Amino acid sequence: MTGTNRKLEGRQEAVLRQMKGLGLRRQSRSYATNLYDIDSTSQLTIASDAPFEDTTEYGESTVLPSVDCGEYSDASYSEPNDESVSPSTSFSSGSPRAAFQSPAGLSSEDFEFLQAHGLERCSPLKDLGQGGFGNVDLVQISLPSGRNFVAARKIIHSPLYAQARYERELRGLVLCAECPFVVDVYTSRVTEDGQFEFLLEYAPNGTLHDMLKAMEQRRRGKDKLLMPVNRIQYYTACILVGLQFIHKRGQAHRDVKPGNVLMAANGRPMLADTDSMDSVTVTKRAGTTSYQAPELWRASLQGPGYTADKADMYAMGITLAEMTAYPAGGNGKLQQLKDDPVGNTPAYVPADLKDLICGLLAPAGKRLTVEQAISHKFFEGVDWEGLKDGPLGINVQLRQAP
Questions:
Q1: Are residues 217 and 363 in the same domain?
Q2: What is the tally of structural domains in the chain?
Q3: Which residue of 53, 63, 336, 381 lies most exposed, with the fewest beta carbons within 10 A?
Q4: In degrees, to the nearest 5, what angle opens at C-alpha 353 toward C-alphas 350 and 357?
Q5: Per UniProt, what is one GO molecular function of this protein (predicted)?
Q6: Tell me: the pLDDT tens digits for 42-92?
Q7: pLDDT in tens, 325-342
Q8: Residue 99 shares a structural domain with residue 196
Q9: Based on the domain organization, do 80 and 164 belong to the same domain?
Q10: CA distances (Å), origin 99, targets 119, 138, 165, 243, 278
Q11: Residue 352 is part of which domain span?
Q12: CATH at 174
């Protein structure tokens, strides 16, 4: 059955009952029905169920015993040569293993084993998250050297996620293998029953969305920045460098949002979920509705009407506004800021930060590019070369081991 006559189950029925209980009878069933569609196409995020812990303020934590969390090896940001992966290249389940990036400190023998057998010989440790397409769990792989290596296994089993989407996500991950601000992929495969699997870098500190929710609770409704200015500088700078890496290769992420930013062990943010990544000139609308630039909605009616890299920068502006003042879902104030950034940015936001937010949320013709944003005066004094070392230069560890 379709439309408002569709039978509702589970979460949709619960939402319907809740809305009716609040007296929101009008259009409540259509909202609950649409929720099914939203859930069915939502992005799958990798999130820890442990609360985010900012060790600049709070105390001791435990470390994962005798388990190695993969980190990126130091790599230059040089432009790809003729032998590198082309943005137009399609990857299949038989993609060359040499395209994957080896975690730092892993021997060639261990890495070859990780690529060849990591997904078939991994032992599940705990569930990390679920979404409309599948689920993510924490797994451990015993390597030939005797080391125990942990990673995140992403399993996609939705009929809405087809071979083409798998190849697009894998292509994006491999294309960004040298960038420490995009999540790393170690191997992937398509099973005989048509299930898509990725072995990804484990981000023990959840997502930026998780962190913002925790910081909003800590702020307790006070009119002040969600976090110190230097932390906003750091997280924004890392995401911008990741976007610059992507844009320089003629691609756009097309789904920038806090839920798609994973937090590494040292607190370094990393862009994830590259299944929407495509050429900057693509005109088909993609991404999460509340983070889409205004020109994306006009494009479907007027033909080519935007470039996806500019749409990325608008989504970055909303993400920055959430990091600064209004995490998503905050009583409509975020929408007011999007409608009029100049007039509705809170008074407690420093002038340079406000100017950057307004520049990112400006109309497409006046919106800052990633290079202009990186050169903005808000980032004066930022150590761009040291960004990959994290805000503390040491691991930000969870309070409880998996």
A1: yes
A2: 2
A3: 381
A4: 135
A5: protein serine/threonine kinase activity
A6: 223 233 333 333 333 322 332 333 344 444 333 323 333 333 333 333 333
A7: 998 765 688 989 999 999
A8: yes
A9: yes
A10: 17, 23, 19, 21, 19
A11: 208-389
A12: 3.30.200.20
Quick one: pLDDT band at residue 16, thresholds 50, 70, 90?
Answer: low
The CATH number of the domain holding residue 262 is 1.10.510.10
pLDDT in tens, 133-156: 889 999 999 999 999 999 999 999
